[in-house]
Design brief:
Order of helices and strands: HHH
Number of helices: 3
Radius of gyration: 16 Å
Helix content: over 70%
Largest sheet: none
Transmembrane segments: 12-36, 48-69, 76-97
Number of strands: 0
Distance between the termini: 47 Å
Protein name: Iron uptake protein
Shape: elongated
Oligomer: single chain
Low-confidence stretches: none
Keywords: Membrane, Transmembrane, Transmembrane helix
Organism: Gluconacetobacter dulcium
Length: 98
């Protein structure tokens, strides 16, 4: 299968997709991992500190990888859809977990 060539024509849209829905996706992953680990949210605990570093690292990876999408619209769709899906997973986890 031949893929489309990567180019820099829509770099502003790709960067914006990495910033806005990419941040929402990183925070959603942090929320899901926090819910699964039963963290209290107190910044003095080790688990909360690890979650803060996880979100920053994940957002940096998303920002670096957002330029690998074919177009800016595709980047917005994938990252935005992923963020919505993970936030829905978090809502389900919060209603199920004690």
């Amino acid at each position: 299968m031949k893929g489309a060539r990567l180019d820099n024509r829509q770099w502003v849209a790709k960067l914006a997709a990495g910033i806005v829905p990419g941040c929402a996706l990183a925070l959603a992953v942090m929320a899901v991992v926090g819910a699964l680990c039963h963290t209290t949210g107190s910044p003095m605990t080790l688990s909360a500190q690890l979650l803060l570093w996880l979100a920053g690292l994940l957002w940096a990876v998303i920002l670096s990888g957002c330029f690998l999408f074919r177009s800016g619209g595709w980047a917005w769709g994938v990252l935005g859809g992923g963020a919505v899906a993970v936030w829905l997973l978090f809502a389900v986890l919060k209603s199920v977990l004690p």
